[in-house]
Amino acid sequence: MRKRWRAWTNVMSIVVMLAAGGGQVCAKEQSDQPARVSRSGIPAKIAFTRENNLWLLDARLPGAKPQQVEKDGLAQIVGWSANGEWLLFMKYKGSDTYSAPGFLWAVKADGSGAFQVDDRPIMDQPKWSPADLKIAYFVQTGSTEDPKSSFVIKEIKHNQADVVHTAKEVDFVDFSWMPDGKQLLVSTAAAKDRAMTLVVRDLTGKTVSTYPIAAPPNVEEGIYAWAARAMAISPDGAHVGYYLQYNSASLSADGVPIGLFDMSHPDKKPVELGTGLIHPQWLRWSPDGKQLAFIDGTDRMATYNKHLKLADPSGKVVSASPQDSVDTMPTWTTAAPYSLFFTRGKGTEYHYDPQKVMVPGQRIWRQEAGAPAKQVTQGTVQTADYFPSPSPDGKQLLFVRADRAQKGSLILAAQGKETEILSDVIGDIGYYGSYLPPWISVYWVSEPTAASLSK
């Protein structure tokens, strides 16, 4: 792997690679303008990538065309704000995400008002507040040879990002927003005579509560559990799922323990749920907090030995994933009764051919409460489906159908019919076929406009 420009430390590098993907190498065979194939209105705002660039489409408007946000450098989608008014994206001044620094940008949903949130290189993945327009992230303040980090919280106001809090000295490895958006959960690293902890802090950096989740390691052994990463917090703020990263990047790349800790009963030890790759998108709570969906399986390749499993808050795990399948991208509906969409295909040895899909015949499935999972998309073995983006009630589903490793179309599945919405959606296969970061990001609008209902 090429050395990433914004590498922090050796033990951090694996998470950065997982988040950044494999770098863009796409042949420019398509026309300059992506085509909107179907002009039917859909109550959704859609961000997507094509030939390294970011595009936006207000699909509510039947006559609307995709709008290009920027033309220079390489763009990767971070995601929509909680209210769908703003989209965050990373921008790289180069042809890939390893040899050049990445900078954080924001753009309005209509494609206007794009601005750079911070003029310093970004480390790791920026994260929206679940409640408002605050953004939290690490920036690189040292040199390439001696990288250091600062932690920043900003809030978008009046079309600019105002500083809420800055910590020039960072004493934690990772963070996640608490569900109310008023506090953060941070993880501190284990070291000689120092326990690994989870710490709740307010937005000024003041500690509210501390939870040791492992005893100090025996560092003389060489390899040990180092820190909790990519923490997924239940909607009630009581439980947290996380990946337990080792102090070895190469060992962590092939899978780490997945833990579950009950912060409402801190005297109880964490439960080990399984083993998986450090992908935040593969560890997700249901909106009612009754189930944590995760992808279990070792080996850094994302094309085989990956299985969907579900854990309840007590740590009881169930799974009906066939042994020869590969499951990824668990995504919950946001309206009750909650159901889970995910990708499933037949496990395939990792082999990259730009003219072929990575997991032939992979489709999107749906798991509803009390029922077996069912396949919900249809296609040929020459294609593979990715990025399930269900409407709140699950009655509509947007997804990408790839016909090559790095090229596909945006499809809408609804009422038993599949309709092509956009052609030539292009992205990267990600870290060993993880297809992360995503090629698309969908914000479903709860109240369709009159235009979206017209045909």
Secondary-structure blueprint of this entry?
Blueprint: H1 10-20, E1 44-50, E2 53-58, E3 67-68, E4 74-80, E5 86-92, E6 102-108, E7 115-116, E8 122-128, E9 134-140, E10 149-157, E11 160-167, E12 174-177, E13 183-188, E14 196-202, E15 207-214, E16 225-233, E17 239-246, H2 249-252, E18 256-262, E19 271-276, E20 283-285, E21 292-296, E22 307-311, E23 317-318, E24 325-332, E25 339-346, E26 363-368, E27 374-375, E28 384-390, E29 396-404, E30 407-414, E31 417-426, E32 440-444, H3 450-453
Antiparallel strand pairs: 1-2, 1-32, 2-3, 4-5, 5-6, 6-7, 8-9, 9-10, 10-11, 12-13, 13-14, 14-15, 16-17, 17-18, 18-19, 20-21, 21-22, 22-23, 24-25, 25-26, 26-27, 28-29, 29-30, 30-31
Observed structural traits:
455 residues, 4-stranded antiparallel beta sheet, 32 strands, 44% strand, disordered C terminus, WD40, PD40 domain-containing protein, 6-blade_b-propeller_TolB-like, signal
Shape: globular
Beta-strand percentage? 35-45%
Describe the main β-sheet briefly.
Answer: 4 strands, antiparallel
Would you identify the regions where 5 or more consecutive residues have pLDDT less than 50? 1-11, 23-30, 449-455
Which strands sit side by side, in order, in the main sheet?
A: 3-2-1-32
Q: Pairing-aware structural class of the strands and helices?
A: mainly beta
pLDDT averaged residue by residue: 91
Q: Give the tally of β-strands.
A: 32
For the termini, the CA-CA separation is 49 Å
The helix tally amounts to 3
Name the helicity range: under 10%
Q: What is the rounded Rg?
A: 21 Å
Family: Belongs to the TolB family.
Protein name: PD40 domain-containing protein
Pfam family, one: PD40
InterPro entries: 6-blade_b-propeller_TolB-like, WD40
